[in-house]
Amino acid sequence: MIRPWETLMALLQFRRPSPGPAVSGAPLEAFLRGWSLEVMPRTAAGIEDFRALLPAGTRVYVAHIAGTATDDLVATAARLRREGFEPMPHFPARVIPDRAALADLVARYRGEAGVRQALLLGGSPKVPAGDFHASMQLIETGLFDAFERLHVAGHPEGNRDIDPAGGERAVMEALRWKAAFAARTDAAMAVVTQFAFDAAPVIAWAERLRAEGFGLPIHVGLAGPAKLQTLIRFAVACGVGPSLSVLQRRARDVTRLVKPFEPTGVAEALAAHKAAEPASLIAGAHLFPLGGIRASAEWVRAQGPGRAVAEG
Question: Which pLDDT tens digit goes with each residue over 63-117?
Fold first, then answer.
């Protein structure tokens, strides 16, 4: 078992990073326009009023972690709706026991919180709670046919839960299935990725998908400002591995360990690519507030994007 502290020590082979390409404010501002944020009921409860932090209409994903009470999930979505935001709950296949439980959850979200968008994903438990193990099975129930927008998960650096032996065969097959489904449904669909610390593999992955004829927009996951130790802990827990090397490149001295690490560099690189390649599938940014909701919202605000309604 790899311990987060051991990973941290391995990363601390300090060297000065080479400077990246300069990016003016305009591409970065455009890239972040339409950004979204992810919250859990317990972290959302610590925010007195989201209207003080987020632009009206911001898409806010409601993370569904195994063991979270349905009442708390639905109440969080309803609160976001009342405060003027667009709630997009997670529906993790391996957490939901059966079709009846899924139907009840969908009905409550729609009836009590006016939910019309959903993120469908496999979920983190290795052992399914019941009948479902993949997001494709959720789609096939037909329970999401009336939703206006469906997002699915993407893994630019692979996913060991889906491809235990490594590689990306199953991940890519699932994405192609979802793209084919999108072509025959009325729902708007997009991909949202796991957070990464390096733009290069994300860009290469997106361009490869585009070359294959894949047409769904990609919302790239960014880890919000957080201490380096916090990021490593989450990265190890979530199976993020290849792009961890960016933390090594950016670490200059031990004092950086107590300072927030911001996603500015990776966001600038993605923005520069999008500006140079307007046809890129990369459509925008999705923030994982690993260092707190307020820190992520303030970081985005400092970059200057205006209204945060996402369409792609």
Answer: 999 999 999 999 999 999 999 999 999 999 999 999 999 999 999 999 999 999 9
Strand residue runs (E) in 93-248:
117-121, 149-154, 188-195, 218-223, 226-227
Place of tokens 């610590």: 46
Domains in the chain: boundaries: 4-8+28-303
Instruction: Tell me the one-letter amino acid at 170.
Output: A
Helix, strand, coil distribution of the chain in percent, nearest 5: 45, 15, 40
Strand pairing partners for 257?
Answer: none
Q: Which of 277, 254, 267 is nearest to 303 (CA)?
A: 267
| Residue 81 token pair | 């709706």
Q: What is the helix (H) or strand (E) element at residue 265, kind and residue range?
A: helix 264-276
CATH code: domain 4-8+28-303 is 3.20.20.220
Is residue 268 within 8 Å of 200, Cβ to Cβ?
no
pTM value is: 0.84
Alpha-carbon dihedral sign for residues 158, 293, 63, 43? positive
Taking the C-alpha atoms of residue 272 and residue 29, their distance in angstroms, rounded to an integer, is 11
CA distance 137 to 144: 11
Secondary element (H or E) of residue 209:
helix 199-211
- Cα–Cα separations (whole angstroms), residue 41 to 60, 66, 76, 80, 210: 12, 12, 6, 11, 36
Q: How far apart are CA 124 and CA 122, in angstroms?
A: 7
**Which alpha helices (H) appear in 45-168, and where do they start and end?**
70-82, 99-113, 135-140
Give helix 25-32 / helix 264-276 axis angle, nearest 10°.
90
Query: In the predicted model, what is the mean pLDDT of the chain?
Result: 83
